[in-house]
Design a protein that fits this description.
Number of helices: 11
Shape: globular
Strand content: 15-25%
Low-confidence stretches: none
Structural class: alpha+beta
Radius of gyration: 26 Å
Number of strands: 16
Mean pLDDT: 91
Oligomer: single chain
Number of domains: 2
Length: 399
């Protein structure tokens, strides 16, 4: 299996400058390759330029611009061209599917933050010598950079990436390792119901509170963004304001990830089988469609956009998608089984008699069956129905 590791790098002042120049030159290569594709399509009778053609030009590009492009790894530049090729492949796939195309855009230097090295030892070298905390990674054109290795890397390192987040630099490794030993079986199964009032509720009536990290940081973010809006573009004061906003967003993201990791780890350690709702989060967080006023051309009727915007912020703040992805990855490593089930009517179906009706859930947290009179917390009922649907689906699957 393949596992990723992310470590903080501690470059010197010169190495920091070299890393910035590496991002700048790879960004320039990306934009140049994009421009070539645009020109070929517009002026060459809709001719398409492929990755192989652009990769074959790298040797001449490096020889012509030896001071900039020639100092970096050839394979990392190939990876940058391959990234552009994937962007075009996704563009054509969306067109074929009838989705919004999203034509690949030119990247500003401030929005090009990652350089990939497809193979350890080709333009980069991860120091596999065991150390206590500090190790080093070598990049062509940069040198040996100190890395804060907070956990050991297990397995053979396959790829290395450099990523910039604000003023910090990170190295991301992917390592191939043997399948880990599964955790001892507990004999326990559980269903979970994701929510806003509570982050999740399981079928044993256990509630995990919603930390609402984004809402807690909203006041500071609002003040920082207002200060940013008052700064003159290109000024040093604006750069500091941008960094402040980025720092606050980065803190919220780390808090959300930390909560997701700890919650998922508890579930994986305690249960052999975990069922959850197959949530279409992107559809759930869409803005409502506008309602034109038939009596007043050019005007629109109220469509609840303001209240839906608040719900969308709460859904994004909860981070359901990140949590479910982490839960699936941890379950795979631990030998546990995770299954997604259809979420329709899970909070409206009575777990005692099976009666399904909208009236069974009179309030957000109350469930009262209109047929048999069963009462419970609505989220607990939803988790029970999710568990039963997951078990039924598991039994129906062919061995």
């Amino acid at each position: 299996m393949i596992r990723a590791y992310k470590f903080l790098m501690r470059p010197t002042v010169r190495q920091d400058q070299a890393l910035r120049e590496m991002l700048r030159d790879h960004c320039s290569l990306y934009n140049g390759a994009l421009q070539e594709r645009r020109d070929a399509y517009r002026h060459g009778s809709k001719t398409t330029v492929r990755y192989g053609q652009q990769s074959a030009q790298l040797k001449d590009i490096r020889a012509f611009d030896h001071e900039r492009q020639g100092r970096w790894s050839f394979s990392s530049q190939q990876a940058t061209l391959r990234r552009l090729d994937k962007a075009f492949a996704a563009f054509f796939r969306r067109i074929k599917a009838g989705d919004k195309p999203g034509y690949p855009r030119f990247r500003g230097v401030g929005r090009f933050d990652t350089v990939d090295f497809p193979k350890d030892g080709d333009g980069c070298r991860w120091d596999s010598t065991p150390h206590d905390v500090v190790t080093r990674v070598r990049f062509q054109g940069v040198g040996h950079v100190k890395v804060h290795q907070h956990r050991p890397v297990v397995g053979k390192v396959k790829t290395v990436s450099v990523k910039r987040e604000g003023k910090r630099w990170y190295v991301i490794l992917t390592a191939e390792q043997a399948e880990p030993e599964p955790l001892p079986a507990t004999g326990s199964v559980v269903g979970i119901d994701m929510g806003i009032a509570n982050f999740l509720t399981d079928s044993t009536s256990k509630f995990v509170p919603n930390p609402r990290h984004g809402r807690k940081a909203a006041a500071k973010l609002e003040a920082a963004q207002q200060a940013l809006s008052r700064c003159k573009r290109g000024s040093k004061r604006r750069c500091k304001a941008v960094e402040m906003v980025a720092r606050l967003h980065r803190k919220v993201r780390r808090q959300r990830l930390d909560h997701a990791h700890k919650t998922a780890l508890d579930l994986v350690r305690e249960h052999d089988f975990i069922a959850h709702e197959d949530l279409k989060i992107r559809n759930m967080s869409k803005a409502p469609a506008p309602k034109p006023d038939p009596d007043n051309p050019g005007a629109f009727l109220p469509n609840g956009a303001a209240s839906k915007a608040g719900l969308n912020r709460s859904i994004s703040d909860a981070g359901w998608g990140v949590f479910l992805a982490i839960l699936t990855a941890k379950a795979e490593s631990a030998g546990r089984e995770v299954m997604a089930v259809d979420p329709r009517n899970t909070s409206r179906r009575c777990p005692e008699c099976g009666h399904t009706a909208k009236e069974n859930r009179p309030t957000q947290d109350k469930f009262h069956c209109q047929a048999c009179g069963h009462t419970a917390h609505a989220d607990t009922v939803g988790a029970l129905n999710v568990l039963r649907a997951g078990l039924a689906r598991r039994e129906a699957q062919p061995a």
